[in-house]
């Protein structure tokens, strides 16, 4: 997917260099964060500012072409958290280095993007210890 440099820059700046799903800062990542199609191209999502979010490599890879999942608590098909139209704080809560989902959208996003894999929690703990991961 070829995304124009101007659009990439907008996405990066708007997110202040942090993954809009797990909040991982670009400065503490070995890999470049990427513009993620919130609704993937495969599902006719557009390549424009309203459909792009900054995502770390892991969130972006695990998300892949998915647009949501089944939330087994409500037994319903639920779309992922949308960083453009929804507020992170309404769907997630940072508890130390654990990202607690607060809603069905939060639950399916944490599950499919594997946001609380033990290694990712450890990584956030290391970043928090040196003040590089936000408390929000
Ligand atoms: Zn991420």
Structural write-up:
There is one protein chain. A hairpin with a 2-residue loop joins β5 and β6. The longest helix has 12 residues. This protein starts with a helix and ends in a 7-residue tail after the last helix. The strands form three sheets. A two-stranded antiparallel ribbon has the order 1-2. The protein has a two-stranded antiparallel sheet with strand order 3-4. The model has no long low-confidence stretch (mean pLDDT 95). The protein has one domain. It is α+β, with helices and mostly antiparallel strands. Zinc ion (ZN) binds next to α2.
The side-by-side strand order for the widest beta sheet comes to: 1-2
Total number of helical segments?
Answer: 5
**What is the domain tally?**
1
Instruction: Report the radius of gyration as a whole number of Å.
Output: 14 Å
Any idea what the shape is?
globular
Q: How many strands, what sense, and barrel or not for the largest sheet?
A: 2 strands, antiparallel
Q: Low-confidence parts, pLDDT < 50 over ≥5 residues?
A: none
Name the helicity range.
25-40%
Structural class: alpha+beta
What's the total count of β strands?
A: 6
Mean pLDDT over the residues: 95
Order of helices and strands: HEEHEEHEEHH
* C-alpha termini separation: 32 Å
* Beta-strand residue fraction: 15-25%
User: Which ions and ligands are bound to the chains?
Assistant: zinc ion
